[in-house]
Amino acid sequence: MAIEVSHKQTVHVRPVEKFDFFQDERVRSVFFQLLTALAVGGVAWFLISNTAQNLEKRGLSFGLGFLDVVAPFDPDFKLVSFTVGVDTYSRIFLIGILNTLYVSFLAIIGTTFFGFFLGIMRLSSNWLISRVALAYVEIVRNVPLLLQIIFWYSVIYAVLPRLKQSLDLSVGAELAFLNIRGLYVPWPVAHDMLWFSFVALAIAIVAAYFFRRWAQQRQDATGQKLPIFLPTAAIIILIPGMVFLSTGSPMTWDVPRLEGFNFVGGASLPRSFIALLFALIIYHAAYLAESVRAGVLSVSKGQSEAALGIGLRPNKVLSLVVIPQAMPAIVPPMISLWMNVVKNSSLATAIGFADLVAVYMQTSLNTAGHAVEIVGMTMAFYMTISLTISGLLNIYNKRVQLVER
Predict the structure, then answer these.
(1) Are 358 and 352 in contact (CB under 8 A)?
(2) CA-CA distance, 185 to 167, in Å (whole number)?
């Protein structure tokens, strides 16, 4: 709307907007979100209260008070201390969480590296290498994971020697041993001054990060490439090493040794843990390999040809040109794959590994009851871990998407 004041000046008047509750998009969005949250909360309250009433009618208690009850059993594998007759079911829950996270973390790392390696093998120009990778992917993906876990558990028992004939993995130094019961390795014992070495390690990592960042900025500005791997490795190793030696080497090693019918000292990984870790890595790496292959094939061949044309070596073309552009296509399926690694670790109960499902949802449920609470807590844990992985990788996915544009 315009009002003419004079021949030379025109005043523009903005029309007054009328607020309409049902037509404002932002208000409607917030209103319906609140309405949905109230509906979900109401359904949850109804289910919880109804369950509590039904259990009370049957003479059963409902609540988390059982977590303070002393647990009458001892898990065979644990990363924290546990005393039978003293520690409670809350400690059992913590042990199950730590065991699950431990094997899942190692399996995710192994799956990522092995899956990328297999995916590159699938694209190899060598006929034999590509066909071997293809056969691996097709065979492993079409055999159920549970069968593979049981297979590796049985193979370890059939192939590895008995306790007295343990394999010395340290080549005569008698430091690490492998047998049908598992893997036995030395364990560090910290002393008073060791924290100085950890502080030095943190400082070295920060220094290495800033060095890599400075080298990248210098390369972008001048085109001159500096060696990065050796200087950063030297920084991370030499600085903590010098501090460690100057403080009198404040750490010793507890070495496993055979006494009677078992090894004592050091740290051990049971056969069930090794079999589960192998099966998770081998199975999920086959799926990641196909995601990597699809992501690499989504990058135009002209990118590789241009990189080769300016003199880059094939390995540099892959790491600096192809893989960064393929990551937007690789990350989304990798999110689901990492979540599946964590969730599929629950199959460990088939071979007796003390993960969360085995020690908490089975043994604890059988001894303490409270099935609704225990199953609900277990489900909540897996849901929390899956949402955390999804959130973190989605942040990274947005970052690589922005880099691509």
Answers:
(1) yes
(2) 12
- Alpha helices, H only, 80-228: 89-122, 127-141, 145-159, 194-222
Tokens matching residue 88: 């409670």
What is the spatial distance between Cα 261 and Cα 259, in angstroms, rounded to a whole number? 6
Backbone phi, then psi, for 102, in 5-degree steps? -65, -55
Domain definitions of the chain by residue range: 90-163+271-405
pLDDT (tens, 9 = 90+) of the chain, 405 residues, equals 555 555 555 555 565 555 556 666 677 777 778 888 888 888 878 877 776 677 667 666 667 777 888 888 888 888 888 888 888 888 999 999 999 999 999 999 999 999 999 999 988 888 899 999 999 999 999 999 999 999 999 888 888 888 888 888 887 788 888 888 888 888 888 888 888 889 999 999 999 999 888 888 888 788 777 788 888 888 899 988 898 888 888 888 888 888 877 888 888 888 899 999 999 999 999 999 999 999 888 888 888 778 878 877 877 788 778 888 888 888 888 888 999 999 999 998 888 888 889 888 888 888 887 788 888 889 999 999 998 988 888 888 787 775 544
The pTM of this model reads 0.80
The superfamily CATH assigns to domain 90-163+271-405 is: MetI-like (1.10.3720.10)
DSSP-derived secondary structure for 27-48: HHHHHHHHHHHHHHHHHHHHHH
367-392 b/e (C-beta count within 10 Å ≥ 16 → b): ebebebbbeebbeebbeebbeebeee
Distance CA 277, CA 255 (A): 24
What are the beta bridge partners of residue 168?
177
DSSP label of 236: H
